[in-house]
């Protein structure tokens, strides 16, 4: 082999956590992150050596660059049209390395992984701009955070070093090309990541004994979900690395295997490689492996395919399942369980769970004491039985740690209530149960059913006192009575009272479950191709709910067997063996049993009856073992005259409170006997309140709707004998509806600011800074002061944005309260909140720049007068400017000189000599960086034709003290930068891209200053708002 020395040029980019991202010129596909520059170069040099050893000999020299020069090019990326996350164009400065290699010019842009070659320098620069725009446009679906990473490259440092390289022979290169990694094991399995495993020593020891030795077997871990099965396997891999324990799952095993027989061939290769490597494979959930691989062409699953190898011991695996899934596995794959040695894991007891939680809190540096840990464990033991200990409690503890507050009993109670929907008074033992207030809550919504309300409130008192029997639903009630008496309304009211919203009501109409197959679909069955049932899926999705089973007597008799399990054990098992827990749900069943016996032939209003006919009918219909499972049989009595009148009054009030009337500020004038007449005519004893509601819709809502639709400017409505007379007039703007709409608009604007792409980019940056700080803390290093200050600034900004939204929500609540209740004083005009929102937008815009009030610029013009116009515009903006260097033109020569070397340094800003065509200067002003961000590019002034040729000027951000590349300034009109603004004297027009505006030949300096102010204000206004024009 021949030995040569390669001279490589390195580009090192500093990251937030103090590490360096190292690139090599000519190798865009390779990079390395390291703590030191030398270490990164050495590691990357080894990768380059391996890479080049596979290249052809005549290709190696093409990768090695001569000494390059560094420059930056500005690229503007337009916002994609299919996302609301990113609305404004983004200007990026991409660092590019240029070098001449023989007869070609080379370019390398590591920020976007771009490497190009061209015959001339001009062609190369043009190609770089074009390819960069194409490459960056492909990031359309990326977040702005990915685009912002490109700014890191502007702080890169360029170094070089010599690396020895051995040129391999043709025989060695051919041998390396033939070495293709076709390992199935490497493609589908990975080592176990580190996990914390507390109080699992006995399980780990049993696993080690079962998987090792002469009588080694595959192991099936059986235990409830969340009890630590996977953590025990990870701890085994950590303690016994010689076992070669790897992990995979069904999805990875079948990925890419679309052809018939492909996944079988992959598994056969996997078994062969596992036997050769003597490794152990963790397959995850066994039930998942039983589903993967099945199709119309064959019913065999991956679990069935591997069963023989597992039983013979040629393949050693670890799988998991729950006790409920064992029966389903044996039913669907007979003999599969026998191929494993079963190891059972029980959920830890109370003391062990608290020990695990304390260890987790200590490992995560969460400030939580023994009392708080005990309370968290008790909450989950009592109300979160749907997930085994301790996984759900650990996840809850981690969520508390993310709040950044010390963990207290009050905080844990509040967060648990927010997650579950349970009221805080039910969780907190110190808060009493206000029985009278609860009764008022129900009776205001459910009229005439006092006994039903008291029965259910008595059960709620048992739950509050923790005297109810565990392992059953919170309550199970059979609501019986004629139609239209309020059973469904009662269920909605109970959901709102217990869980905070009527949307927590889960309703199933059992009149649609009249055959065995429809009943089976409620719990799922693999025989029907849907192992997850409709009912079990809803309960698993939301275990804290009111479950309403409507007209249960019409269901198929097989449903009553399920009902026995639901009411007796508080759980249901679906077709795949997964458990749906009902211990935190209230089960309500409704029925019209006995309605025929109780129906009277009398006309008009029904008389009050005791409900004995309904209870007798239920006893005749329901089996005794099911009847005894109900906590109470709740009869709903027929409505009498007074209750019908109260319901009619309530429904009329609801009609008058609908948005169509309230938002118009209209309160219709109704006859005094409206409620009495509607109650008298609309009530039907056979159909109850539903008939009354239909009558109100027909007699009241329809006439009002027709009149409002025909008279949208109506300000007053009078109803008389089903005819509505409208008075037309202009409605005042300061109505309660207008105030409520204004408050809602303010709240929506605040919410849009909180979720806008600009602020979300800052949120991502704050998270990255926190992650970097945690990394440094683990290495016992201190973050840079600049990073600490930046994180403080972003954290305060995000907190203020959330506080602004909270204030807007409070203002909206006050406006809505005054809108719905005329006795409440409306809130003051939100001028203070509006001003605060404007100030917040300015802060968000400023936070997007490292130094928002300062910028360094290079300003060059091909004509001295055009340079003076631009400087005059900056003077009009009241910017504080300081010149660092000047560019002078003497004939055809350009010369750059520091300001201290010229005799006119005191007058260069006000009256620059005619020889000066360019300046580098620092500019300081409020939001200066944003003010000039849209001005980077070429500015054109086209005077009258008799006045001469067009004049060009270039403005770009730069390091004001850096050496100026004069070759790029000789012909400003051919600059690759975009054209920002053109003044056309002959057409009397000012152009900015596609935007046009009449130009009254006012001095350009005034127009430029005005447009810069307007564009800055538009940039502020667009934060959180719809994209506007220029």
Characterise the protein shown here.
This protein is an alpha/beta fold and 1030 residues long. It has 38 helices and 32 strands. Helix 10 runs parallel beside helix 12 (302-312), helix 28 packs across helix 30 (674-682) and helix 28 (641-656) packs parallel to helix 31 (689-710). The radius of gyration is 38 Å and the shape is globular. Residues 600-609 and 730-734 have low confidence and may be disordered.
Tally of individual helices: 38
Strand order of the largest sheet: 26-25-27-24-29-28-30-31-32
Question: Which bin fits the share of residues in helices?
Answer: 40-55%
Largest beta-sheet characterization: 9 strands, mixed
What's the total count of β strands? Answer: 32
Shape: globular
Report the uncertain regions.
Answer: 600-609, 730-734
Strand-residue proportion: 15-25%
Terminus-to-terminus distance: 64 Å
Radius of gyration: 38 Å
Structural category = alpha/beta
Mean pLDDT: 80
